[in-house]
Amino acid sequence: MTHKPIQRILILGCGYVGEKLAMACLAEGMQVFATTRNQERATALDKLGIAPYVVSSPVDLPDTLLASVDAVLDSIPLSRDEQGMHASQLQWLPLIIDKCLKLRWAAYLSTTGVYGDAEGAWVDESWVCKPTSGRGSQRLLAEQAWLQSLLPAEVFRLAGIYGPERNMFARLKAGNYKAVNWHPAHYSSRIHIDDIVAALMAAMQNPRSGRVLNLADDLPLPHAEYVCEVAKLIDAPEPLILTEEEGEQQLSASVLSFFKDNKKVSNRLLHKELLPQLKYPDFRDALREMLTGQ
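Above: the chain's sequence. Below: its structure in token form.
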């Protein structure tokens, strides 16, 4: 089935992933609009050819803009207050639904944290989500808001994002990086920014309303094993590998929450529907390229 090409895309919360997607969209001849809360950031986006809107919420966007775009990417992070983190989509999304008159594709960038702890099992998109953190619970609520919105929305659950300008090199080279040696080993997954962008571009060309898709590479690894391998690759000091007891004593609750869940994220559906082959099936070739500046 041939789909009409996307011509105008609005990126809500144009951060690292949003900017990389925006550049790919511009290269395809699309008009790209983006929201930010920061005027300095807006100036930077404008220089890249992205039309910026400085707003505190999507409800503050002009109705004419919402009515004119045929694609929306929601990359807005959770909001924080004294009570914790919250999915703002529950407030603003119902207020803009009727204004998105031409929308043919929408995507929400979520996290594999919505699955919770799988005790090391492989999890695919059919896995029952039982998030173990407030962050994961709120992301799940945002997913549900989009999927129940009656808009042509998809959800992408991202593993740990890495790439140029977003990696562990500086922290590892600074020394004293700490990771926990869990028993049994706790697995986590990653995804390179280029593969995220490729998946989103492919989804725009082959949309499927209601689709939920994991974005992860082919190599889940225990975090401690991963950071040791990266440190060796970049000639950084060897990370400090803590026991579980030491980790509880020395690391913050927020840091520990990222690595307590133990799961291997399946990307089988990603390969089947959008990307038969990843540019970076695992992190090794990607990091070598980043080191050599290729």
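The chain has a mean pLDDT of 94.
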